[in-house]
Specification:
Layout lengths: L1 H8 L11 H13 L7 H17 L7 H14 L5 H5 L2 H7 L15 H26 L3 H23 L9 H11 L5 H11 L4
Length: 204
């Protein structure tokens, strides 16, 4: 673990490729998976997903982000899990390396309609899925209903934006969708973005 900490904390030469960044993101995903980054399972899952997506973005061995995500998830599953105490000792290093991963509060959504609406659908869909798992465990569907209601509002906005951009459907719009996934990495985790998307909806 000490070697991993040194790798993650080491400064990189100006202009040099950050060859350790993908491994650092994978390590931080393990830290988040240990439960060290949040007491709330929903937020912790958002942290794990942020780090895995960051690792995929930093993967140079795949031709698409989706292919990279597949490689990253396979590598992550093969990593030995960290205990929560091990994770806690590494949280500050992860925060320094990926400062927006655990951002709380609202973020600034893209002004471009296609990117904003696709991003909101993407993040609300993920958080909705995590909320569904929480509902199955606790029987409380408050969070689930909140995210599903917002997703229902954003889905037609996203579909319309994709159509206006000249794509016949979501499947044909993989390039802008992957660009949106990467853009979200500069804003924060899915939980923070999803809550901002909800706040941006007109009051009903």
């Amino acid at each position: 673990m000490l070697a991993a900490l040194m790798l993650m904390a080491a400064p990189q030469p100006a202009g040099a490729a950050d060859v350790g960044a993908r491994d650092a993101a994978l390590m931080c995903a393990s830290v988040a998976a240990s439960g060290a980054t949040s007491d709330t399972r929903l937020i912790g899952a958002a942290h794990v997903t942020y780090y895995l997506t960051q690792a995929a973005h930093l993967d140079t061995g795949a031709t698409t982000l989706m292919a990279a995500l597949g490689r990253v998830k396979s590598d992550f599953a093969a990593r030995p899990p960290l205990s929560i105490d091990q994770g806690r000792r590494m949280v500050s290093v992860c925060d320094a390396r990926f400062p927006v991963a655990r951002r709380t509060g609202q973020v600034v959504l893209p002004t471009d309609g296609l990117r904003r609406n696709v991003m909101c659908v993407m993040e609300l869909n993920f958080i909705g899925g995590s909320s569904e798992k929480a509902f199955e465990q606790t029987g409380d569907r408050t969070a689930l209903d909140r995210y599903l209601k917002a997703l229902k509002s954003y889905r037609p906005l996203s579909d319309a934006a994709i159509s206006r951009a000249g794509y016949p459907n979501e499947a044909a719009a993989q390039a802008p969708i992957e660009q949106t996934i990467v853009a979200a990495l500069d804003l924060g985790n899915a939980y923070a973005i999803a809550d901002t998307c909800i706040a941006a909806l007109p009051s009903s």
